[in-house]
Amino acid sequence: MSTLVALARAQAFAAGRAQPIATVRHLHVHDHPLVLIPLAMAGEANAPLAAMLGTSPDRPRLLFVAQPRNRAERFAFAATLAAELVPYLTSFAGETEAVAVDRGRDVRHRYVDAPQIWVPNTGGIDFLRLFGRSTRFRRVDGDHPVPPTVPLLGQWLTFLAGASEVPGSSLLLNAVQALGLHWASGQSGAEDAHLAAQLAWIESGAAAAREAESGPVAGPATDPDFDNRVLAPLISDSDPSLPAVLHDLLLPAWQQMWRVLSLLRTLPPGDRVALRWDGDRDAYSSFVEHLAESGVPQPRRDGAVAAAARLQRLENAAARYAVQRAFDDPLVMAEYRLTGAAFVGVVTLAAPDRVDDTGKRPVLRPRIMVATTEPVRVEPGANLTSPARPAQKAKVISIARTESGWDVLLELSGGMGRKLVAEPGSVPLAGEQLLLTTLSEAYRPGAAFPEPAETPWTHGGPPEPFSPGE
Amino acid sequence: MNRIDRLRGPGPAKRHNARTLAALTGNPGCARRSVLDAAGVDKVALATRIGFAGNFGQSRFALARGNAFEAMLKADDCELLRSVLDVGVVGYQDLGEDADDTLGARHGRTRELLASATSALIDHPLLTLSIAGQTVYLEPDLIAFQSEGRLRVVEIKSFAIVDGQADSAKVAAAAVQAAVYVLALRELLGADRVSHEVVLVCPENFSLQPVAVVLDVRKQLSTLRRQLSRLSSVSALIDALPDSVSFDLALPPAVLIESLSEVSARYVPECLSSCEMSIYCRDEAAGTTASLGRSVRESLGGVDTVEQALALSTGAAAPTPKQTEAAILLRTAARLRREALGLSSSRSDG
Fold first, then answer.
1. Interval B16-42: pLDDT, tens
2. How many interchain CB pairs under 8 A, A with B?
3. Is B24 in contact with B274 (CB distance < 8 Å)?
4. pLDDT surpasses 50 at B348
5. What's domain A342-437's architecture?
6. B140 and which of A28, A125, B181, B271 could share a cystine (Cβ 3.0–4.6 Å)?
7. Range of B329's domain?
8. d(Cα A383, Cα A385) in Å, to the nearest integer?
9. Which residues of A touch B341 (CB under 8 A)?
10. Has this prediction a pTM greater than 0.80?
11. Number of structural domains, chain B?
């Protein structure tokens, strides 16, 4: 945890109220999200007990299983959930837009919008991932046939759970993490996992948070006490009041979820949030295409090539997300200033017309001197970027200690137009305050991987082709 | 009556088991937990008595599934268990469950059977481990004999292994518990007769079909050994306590709290999931940076209390020589926060 966030937690404890740790919203909040609160049966491997879901705060829909250990009822639940969820998920596969690819030599199409699902916590996401695993290989024929929507739901849930692992993706989000990204409570991260308590720190304060701890949970695990005293007799007696009890149990979490969404909407979105949502729409579009074409369910485990490629995509996404968050939000950038990976200074000298003519042809290479009082941990030769001019590179020529801090001499390239005279405003002028950082938004090329069919024997050889079955 | 029994009062002693030992090693620096466990105090009852009851119940659904899974494995002379362990035709010995007062006898039978070195699955064995000068009885799920005469501990758990993966926290807990049994067996028979590999038997995927996986618990063993040796000071700790300290549940809550305050705790948020006293300790530790989490404490430069950290960050308190570096960090962090949030006042709370 960064010192800034830790300090915010300390301040929150002293104030008895959560403190902001972001000045903008770092995730996309959909105009029409779907909220889903899954509830699991204790002890079983991913047996659903109930789910409350819907796209409107006034109309929660409760699904439940009267006998959670009964396999048939479990798959009936999956079919009902699919009937609710799949139409929402596919409802965005309508209008498309053209996107230029390969430097404008080609176009591809992507959907103009994508679905967004909210669950209360990471446990909710894990539940959906496992539920996807338990349903996507189900056969629609043979001994225990299920409706075709059940394996389809499984594929969708697997896709969403996979997307939720991509840093910065907003297709499947959880409320606890979303709040924790923007507010620091005065309690530990472990205690924040309780949605009601964490939300209470933001809405009303420490005392309310303590009280909320003993209140109903937001799933997927139930309270053992509730299991023993309330649920067990209801299930063993096949009591018709079961749905009403489950409804009352889940309703507080349902309301909290919508309050979380309202809270997040009060923050202005970061400039680069839309860029990441574009990526989500790309992922959604290609998954819809995959379903329409082969529709082969995702494998139980990735093959070697697929796993390596996925790991690299995740690493790139994590690096890009970290940089974008810092560029969007001065409070996040402050963490890098604290460690010396970014600094704010004032331009004391500027030579905007400097031309380097030592090479084959002259190039525009203005130089600026930046004076700072903040810690600077960069070496000469390093390339820095300023969020104000992300297309421009600033190479560190020299660093000199001064009485009050450092003088950093920088040589600029890029982002100044194509002529030998810089476009107005593209070179910082003397007196301008500037933030410079080692973080860069530069494109990271993907690594080259062999075709799956050419997986070397060191990595287990080519993966087995898909075969249906549990 | 010895000092330890006097600490507990007239109630029956709570026995240590592999789970409490594993939890103990999770926070070895906590003197309070060591003392209460050594004295066999019923921590659930104690916490309830002083008004800080936690929620440490177990769902009856989870219990039922665990029992059903074990019963299924052991049905028909352990047919399913034999096939999943691939042990072939060996004897099965059930040492039976019994009451607290016959533990010594059962332990004797276990010792005899283990020493005889006949291949067998041994059910309900009873092992002992000496913890901080006290004998603790342990009941592993099962011990399987290997053909080469090396013993293997078998641990039966009811969490699912899906596509070769399981909940990492549950696997880690099972590994530590199994390591406790390995340690106890080695104390009895010597290191070379007990394998450091334990067998975990769990349901596979979404069925009740069992699957066996082998876990190497060497790392857990060395951690356990190190941490259990540190516990040896608990007798000294107890002897050093004032005579007035008692956890007799018949005493009024105020007296019990007074006694608790004589034994220092080391609260961290992780305690909430493993220790029955944690709600009380959390209340007591309010205002410390450690109660916000280890990483928060470290990020705040290791300063002990929230008040101190904030005073250093605003410059209201002068740092001690040891805090100079932390103070610079905290002041810079506070300035950067104020700047980014557009606040001009010196404090951002309020």
1. 777 777 777 777 788 888 888 888 888
2. 143
3. no
4. no
5. Beta Barrel (2.40)
6. B181
7. 294-349
8. 7
9. 20, 23, 331
10. yes
11. 2
